[in-house]
Amino acid sequence: MTPQKDPDTVNLRLILVSGKTKDFTFSPDDSASDIAKHVFNNWPLGWEEEQVSSPSILRLIYQGRFLHGNVTLGALKLPTGRTTVMHLVARETLPEPNSHGQRNRDKNTESSCCLLL
To answer: Domain Ubiquitin-like: where (predicted)?
Structure first.
């Protein structure tokens, strides 16, 4: 008899900047911090070059956005029983939620160009 997969789990495929991937299974109640701790404590073979010193600097990126530590997989409405892809990066701090908009407002509207003949 083969063990059945729990239909209420979320399957995550985590991708490092290097392109290496690993699949993990989590509960919808697990937060981004829980996931970072689990990955840190179960660091995959083959990821040795990317090993970090602390789970607190591991960050998840989903649909182009950094996930803050308290966000759960259930809150993201991820499909259970299917694989969802997220990026895993090492980063000390997260950008402020409105930093993208602020950066756009602060951009100088002048531009420089050079003509090559």
So the answer is: 10-88
DSSP E strands in the chain: the ranges are: 10-15, 21-26, 58-62, 65-66, 83-90
Structure token pair of residue 98: 């409105």
Residue 59, domain extent: 22-90
The Cα–Cα gap between 69 and 33 comes to 4
Looking at residue 115, what is its pLDDT? 57
Closest CA to 89 of 42, 36, 48, 43: 36
Residue 53's CATH number: 3.10.20.90
Task: For residue 94, give both structure tokens.
Answer: 């997260």
* Domains contained in the chain, number: 1
The verdict on residue 52 lying in a domain is: yes
Residue 33 in any domain: the answer is yes
In a domain, 109, yes or no: no
Whether the model clears a pTM of 0.85, i.e. scores above it, the answer is: no
